[in-house]
Design a protein that fits this description.
The complex is a heterodimer of chains A (about 230) and B (about 250). Chain A is mainly alpha-helical and about 230 residues long. Chain A has nine helices and two strands. Chain A is elongated, with a radius of gyration of 20 Å. Chain B is α+β, with helices and mostly antiparallel strands and about 250 residues long. In chain B, helix 5 packs antiparallel against helix 6 and helix 5 crosses helix 9. The chains are: A mainly alpha (about 230), B alpha+beta (about 250). At the A-B interface, helix 3, helix 4, strand 2, helix 7 and helix 8 of A face helix 1, helix 2, helix 3 and helix 9 of B.
Chain lengths: ~230, ~250
């Protein structure tokens, strides 16, 4: 938020906090690049996860089955279909298309994975998470393995959430595609007015806790979240 | 969160001042692109499922082994009247299987000859393409009554996983070493004749609850191998079903 107030032409006088070098305006410049980095990181993880599973559909099905969570009918569907969802997310993030949507879906999927891993751990199963191919029994699986996997996924969830809140990034198709995530476009269109972008971030977060707003909830936000 | 809300509050005024309306209009409904992306994702995942299904065992033509197999499509040693049915699920590339084989092999040989157990070997070829090919080749050997010799040789000569060690030439060489060099065996190995069948039995094993190798079942119940340390332990577990007594 401070970032926005710092922009020229706006309330410049108001806040000049902190040491000069990482000046807020520079942060504002950096933010889209960080978002691009986040996109690439998540896309890389998804591609890795997807390809490792797609090459061996039998193993993918076995990995899902090892969790002993889904009925047999859904085990196959998940083993075969999930990697393509991951691949789709990778493509979207790589292209920077519908970035906020892809980020939200990434976070949701990762949370589902975390629930699965935590549940396997809680039930005393000793399995490989099958996150990047493989899967099935892993006699060495213990608290350390599961904690590490959960921590890794939590880290990725945080990255995905940050990207969902600030989806505006460099090298993103969202900036060019007509009708693309409006806020993302707005951000790029008003290159000299970063304030708009930051205000939006504020809006979204306010929407998240749904507090202190007498206006209707933001339909856009609901849509990207509820899917 | 609080600062965010504050920010929104003050920003709200500013926005109102400079054209809030168009903004609000835009944000009313989710962007078309999101809907388009959702549709494409659903189609993509559906197509993916179809592709993977077509690659799955269910869609490949399975050639059943020509020789007789025991319960669950496994290779059998010993009499059907033995009181204990011991089943092993193994992968020829699995180091733990090779290690177990060194202990289990002699025990199985003795106990089956004594009529105390019936032993069944199942393929659980989950470690990659070379596991499938090796299991197929062993089944080719089984067609001519040389399954166990070939099986023992594969474990004895185990190399690093999917390192290219189990090439066609190597599999044929193993055949020669157990006395198989005829056209029938050669063709069977070259064509990977039983790979679809091996995939099928591996899938069936997975449904049964096999998650890795080696896995032993005693009269239908999985044996806990983590408590087994010595050959005596192993024999006790096989015969009595528990590894606890005397330890």
């Amino acid at each position: 938020m401070r970032v926005s107030a710092r922009e020229q032409g706006e309330a410049t006088a108001g806040r000049r906090i902190g040491p000069p070098p990482p000046s807020p305006s520079r942060l504002a410049e950096l933010a889209p690049w960080l978002a691009t980095a986040a996109r690439l990181l998540l896309a890389g993880v998804w591609i890795w996860a997807a390809v490792a599973k797609i090459v061996d559909p039998d193993a993918s099905v076995r990995a899902v089955r090892a969790y002993q969570l889904l009925p047999e009918g859904l085990v196959q569907l998940t083993g075969w279909g999930l990697p393509f969802l991951e691949l789709g997310l990778a493509v979207l993030l790589l292209a920077g298309l519908a970035t906020r949507f892809a980020a939200v879906l990434s976070a949701l999927l990762l949370v589902v994975f975390m629930v699965g891993i935590a549940s396997a751990w809680a039930r005393g199963l000793q399995i490989d998470c099958g996150c990047f191919g493989g899967g099935g029994a892993d006699p060495t699986a213990g608290a350390g393995t599961y904690l590490l996997e959960l921590a890794r996924d939590l880290g990725l969830v945080v990255v995905a959430c940050l990207l969902a809140v600030w989806p505006r990034s460099r090298f993103a198709l969202d900036s060019y595609v007509l009708g693309a995530s409006d806020d993302d476009r707005a951000g790029d269109d008003r290159a000299g007015d970063d304030r708009a972008g930051d205000d939006r971030a504020g809006d979204d977060r306010a929407g998240d806790d749904r507090a202190g707003r007498d206006e209707a909830p933001w339909p856009h936000h609901q849509d990207s979240e509820g899917r | 969160m609080k600062s965010a809300r504050d920010g929104t509050g003050s920003a709200g005024r500013g926005r109102q001042a400079r054209g809030k309306q168009p903004w609000r209009q835009k944000r009313r409904r989710p962007p078309v692109i999101v809907w388009a992306v959702v549709v494409i994702l659903v189609i993509g995942v559906g197509a993916g499922v179809a592709i993977q299904r077509s690659r799955s065992v269910e869609s490949t033509g399975v050639v059943m082994p020509a020789h007789a197999l025991g319960p669950g499509g496994g290779e059998v040693l010993g009499s059907a009247s033995a009181p204990v049915l011991l089943e092993e699920y193994g992968d020829y590339q699995c180091p733990a299987c090779a290690a177990l084989q060194r202990i289990l092999g002699p025990i199985v040989q003795r106990l089956t000859q004594q009529g105390r157990i019936r032993f069944v070997f199942h393929n659980f070829a989950f470690l990659g393409p070379e596991s499938l090919r090796a299991a197929s080749a062993a089944t080719c050997a089984g067609d001519q009554g040389k399954f166990w010799q070939y099986h023992d040789l594969l474990y004895a000569e185990q190399a690093a996983e999917n390192s290219g060690a189990l090439s066609t030439d190597r599999l044929l060489e193993f055949g020669r070493r157990v006395g198989l060099s005829d056209e029938r065996f050669t063709t069977c190995v070259r064509d990977d004749t039983y790979v679809p069948w091996v995939r099928q039995v591996t899938e069936e094993a997975s449904r049964r609850g096999v998650r890795g190798t080696p896995t032993l079942y005693r009269n239908g119940t999985q044996l806990p191998l983590d408590q087994v340390e010595t050959p005596a332990d192993l024999e006790r577990v096989i015969l009595s079903g528990t590894g606890q007594p005397g330890r």
